[in-house]
Amino acid sequence: MKDQNQDPNKRSDNETDETLTNRQGHPVTNNQHVRTVGDRGPTTLENYDFLEKISHFDRERIPERVVHARGAGAHGYFESYGTYGDEPISKYTRAKVFTEKGKQTPVFVRFSSVIHGGHSPETLRDPRGFAVKFYTEDGNWDLVGNNLKIFFIRDPLKFPDLVHAFKPDPVTNVQDGERIFDFISQTPEAMHMITFLFSPWGIPANYRMMQGSGVNTYKWVNEEGNAVLVKYHWEPKQGIKNLTQKEAEAIQAKNFNHATLDLYEAIEDGDYPEWELYVQIMSDDAHPELDFDPLDPTKLWYKDQFPWVPVGRMVLNKNPENYFAEVEQAAFGTGVLVDGLDFSDDKLLQGRTFSYSDTQRYRVGANYLQLPINAPKKRVATNQRDGQMEYHVDIGPKQNPHVNYEPSLLNGLKEAKQDGQDHTPYVEGELQRASIDRQNDYGQAGETYRRLSDWERDDLILNLVNTLAPCHEDIQKQMIDHFSQCDPEYGRRVKEGLEKQKGADTHRQPQGGADGDAAMHAAEALGH
Ligand code: HEM
Predict the structure, then answer these.
(1) Considering only Cβ atoms within 10 Å of each terminal Cβ, which end of the chain, N or C, has fewer?
(2) How far is the CA of 213 from the centre of ligand 1 (A)?
(3) Which residues carry a binding-site annotation?
(4) What's the pLDDT score for residue 522?
């Protein structure tokens, strides 16, 4: 006889398909009133429906991401070209996501701003996150990037200090340009990033019209186990648009969710945003001929020396159905690589790789990888068991349920066969705490300053002057010195701007108002 309790559609005579239930499956007969002694109360404590409803509500929020809390996401696919220039891409990587021409891999992308909370304005001067999860046949690959191609620091030990300086003051809870530049003035490697960030490149017009970059140096590994160093870049087919401070303020006055809405509405309208993925390659060595280290994330690899080669395209064609389940609970990390892709020795990358899954076990929970948005779209069979919120057992189809260990002769899980040769770099050196040799903190920052167009340079100077004006004089002097070392004109213009502002009424604010022109500005890719 069929066990009627197993029939998920079974219901009592009083229920229809529309009937509200609680999570125990009890039909809810009164969702308007708590149970009370008489109509005026007091309320009784055994009110299970009410307690379940309110205590679930009390737990609706999980901790925000400590950085990149404000974001928007979308689903789509990545299509591989199968080649690297004139060569088959398999010469450089055996990653299946790339090797077959025309192969489509599902993706989920989350765009974000960095510093402020989950509902902060999307017009703020801030790097933008560009995180892509590829659900490949070999399991997931996350490419966790930003819109800008470089970063503030090169050592992960500095990351909490960097973020604290940019986050609101712990006393006033207000972001303060003086705290930002107190830290930055003593962090010369940040000059390149600051030059981008305080120019219009620090406020992309929306998510569809911005670039993306992996920033850190990774490796590709081929069938023979040979590696090359690589950098990844996303180029929007929609073109690139950035905003002056004044343009951003005009948008913010009316709509502080404009980037989320822009993405959502474009996809709803069938105007699917698309990016092409470009990869730059360097041979896997220290490159003593360069004036920078290829593992330094504060540096660009200039296009004329290291060409951008397209390897595929990405289309976003589906909005999330539930923001919390898909966007808020999404968990990306730099450790999530597949066969044929590898880490480089970039220290910042290695520090990041610990941080992401660590914070996600705290933010989402120990079983965060079982959630549909994070789980790979292929079989998962592990010996990991239990933990808070375990949703199902990751058991293999033929696995003996008594055997949750390996090795075993009793039908336990077995190791996979290795595809291709291992990449086995030889590493030696003295254990030490030291910076890389070729720091060259100012060279590329000066070059970026000179490559900006006139309106971008004007806006950069204005934004820097407005933010530095209320800062302590020692900080101003230090910053003028740094900018002068990037380019004498750069330092001179900031100095002159600050002298003009002396005595003027300057509010403490990190961004300042700018005199730009009212239209949005299309940007060229700066030749990088
Ligand atoms: C998010 C750490 C550098 C891009 C995060 C989160 C942490 C973190 C803890 C929150 C993750 C979560 O709650 O799910 C670090 C550390 C860094 C670093 C320790 C340096 C040592 C970078 C760099 C980039 C970057 C260089 C750009 C290439 C992102 C993005 C997100 C993020 C895009 C948001 C991911 C999402 O949408 O869920 N980072 N980060 N981070 N980080 Fe980093």
Answers:
(1) N
(2) 13
(3) 356
(4) 59
Tokens representing 453 are: 């167009």
From 158, 355, 361, 368, the mutation candidate for ligand 1 (largest count of ligand atoms within 8 A of CB) is 355
What residues line ligand 1, using a CB cutoff of 6 Å?
65-68, 71, 110, 112, 129, 131, 144-146, 151, 156, 159, 215, 330-332, 348, 351-352, 355-356, 359-360, 363
The structure's pTM equals 0.94
Kindly name the residue from 140, 146, 242, 367 that is annotated as catalytic: 146
- Ordered by start, the domain boundaries in the chain are 21-60, 71-370, 441-500
Predicted local distance difference test score (pLDDT) of residue 419:
83
Mean pLDDT by 10 residues, the chain (528 residues): 57 85 89 94 89 90 97 98 98 98 98 98 98 97 98 98 98 98 98 98 98 98 98 98 96 97 98 98 97 98 98 98 98 97 97 96 96 96 93 93 96 92 95 96 98 97 98 98 98 98 62 41 55
Residue nearest ligand 1's atom 37 by CA: 110
Q: Whose CA is nearest to atom 17 of ligand 1?
A: 352
Torsion on CA atoms 150, 153, 155, 159, rounded to nearest 10 = -110
Strand (E) or helix (H) holding 488: helix 488-501
What dihedral do alpha carbons 219, 221, 227, 233 form, nearest 10°?
-30
CATH of 21-60, one of 3.20.20.140, 3.40.640.10, 3.90.180.10, 4.10.91.20: 4.10.91.20
Identical fold for domains 21-60 and 71-370, yes or no, is no
- Ligand 1 centre to CA of 272 (Å) is 26
Kindly give the number of the ligand 1 atom that is closest to the alpha carbon of 160. 19
Structure tokens at 315: 């289309």
Indicate the DSSP class of residue 325.
I
CATH number for 71-370: choose from 3.40.50.300, 2.40.180.10, 1.10.1740.10, 1.20.1630.10: 2.40.180.10
User: What does 99-117 look like in DSSP terms, one character per residue?
Assistant: HSTT-EEEEEEEEEESSS-
Query: What's the ipTM?
Result: 0.97
